[in-house]
Amino acid sequence: MKNTAQQSQFHKQIGLWLVAIAVILTAAFLRGKVNVRAAESLITKHTYINDQKDIWQLKDTKAGQTYKLKIEVGSVYSNPQLKYEWYYIPESNYTAEQKLSCTTSEISVTKSKYREDSYRVEVTDTKGNRVIEIFSLQREDILQAKLYVNNEEYESDDGRNIFVVEPGDRPLLKVETATEAKNTKFSWIKYSDDDDSNTTSTQDTCRADSVNGVDDQYACEVESDGYKARYIFRVGIESVLSMNPKLEMYINGTKTNLLTDDIYDVYAKKGDRITLVTKITSKKYGTDQIQYKWYVNNKPVTNTSSSPDTYTFTKSGNDDEYYECRISLKSDSSVENNAGVSIGLDSGIRGQTFVNGTPESEVTVRSYDELKNIRFKVEAQGDYPIKSYQWYLVDKLDDDTLLAQTQEYILPKEVAQKEEFIGMIGCKVTDTEGNCQWFYFDIDLDTNSTPTTPVIPSTGQNKTWQTKVNVALKIGAKAVDKKTKATYKVTTSNTVQYVKASSKKAKIVKVPSTITVNGVKCQVTSIAPKAMKGNKKLKKVIIPSSIRTIGTQAFARCKNLKNITIQTPYLTKKSVGAKAFKGISNKAVIKVPKKQLKAYQKLLKTKGVSKKVKIKK
User: Fold this and answer.
1) Is the predicted pLDDT of residue 277 greater than 90, yes or no?
2) Which of 141, 213, 269, 581 could form a disulfide with 608 if both were Cys (CB 3.0 to 4.6 A apart)?
């Protein structure tokens, strides 16, 4: 009996130990799952072209030359099994995509005679996580040509330029190629959304059909020794669509230079008196035949000005407002054209962010434990004394959680373990007049990375650096990225807005998450209103996780835009402007983060995306 009792007690102890071990293993497993959910399981660390790091596009390429493409990825898993699939896309024509035999992270390719060769690589792990990157090899276009309508030089690439003719006219269209183009072939078609197969001419000129519409489009496809190009002509009877409305802006009586002719985005201070004047050119219609309607944030407003083309108001305390004038003919109000300006609030507050004493706005950790005792700080100054610093947790649902009300914030141990701290925190700086300015910090989890270990500079160094940055990064200043030639605008001391691509002929636009301006690393947090509006060449766009806002009509009328990857989880109804995706291809496929799939399916439909467009994770 005694032995039986002892054996029973022994078995009971063994059972308890097994239960305890199971509990420990389960907890460890669940803890591991939390880590995985908190960050992207598979991310692109670096891309290479011919060993040049962090580059995905090369412009000065030559036909017949070999180029080496490479991708490096990071994973939250140790020693993940990765699968690589490479695809070739001639002239960015995704319908002609060809799968290649390469199954490694690196591939050698030979440049074709096309103006552009694109390569897509998909990397997947055994868990089903995936990253996709696009490489682009471009060359100088020897088929650069001059276009003429009725022997008058014609500029077609602004997406709005309609050559105005009288009803019934048959204008002569001409493509004049450069002398380097040999054995040139021309193929003309009358271009439409539904059918562009109607060949009309095989010469360098084409007599258009009798023009009775407001916008007839013709395309000339040119081929020379294997090099190909397509040019678009737009002709029509004068209407609102053929006018090119522009805005003039005055702040307290002084004219303000807007950034470009078609992208308007400026800052003004609270209480500034602002006057907007719409300027249009018409060969046929007088001012008395045109009507003007003014809108603020897409809501109609009453214009008290004696002149209908002028709108005067006082800048309010709202952070960002979009003012728009829509013009139409009084005889036909069904067709409108517009010109608009996004006016942000210039708080007068300038500052710099610091991580552990070093000028920085990003921190990368390999585990939650490394978040302990990281010191985030904002040094700010403004037109009025600074009143308060308020720290917030900005999670993926855009809810703001107040953390502290001090100039410096240290993550305490009890909150550093929480998964919501993998993302972003923000500091709202307010002065005694109620003006405020946001400063953001990005916190990234990358288990394969080297942790951020900034060197703490002296106080004197901080002050010197601060002064230089405030001078170099003037709010509203224009900046051009040396690598991609894209245009940006400085929005705060360490953030910029993507304004426009390097060319209106760009077929692939990959918005970066950061760029360097005057030696300062800046985060790209927004895409400007009308940034790529009317770009009929654009076929693919990648929007990074750093983007918080997308402006009104940012991608409107990009009729060939069929591939969009949205990596950011921060978009909301308020942060995406009206008609941001209006007029993109009905055959488009939009890839969004898994957690935001349902929310983004609903959101994007309200921003102009057709019901036929596929939105998937």
Assistant:
1) yes
2) 581
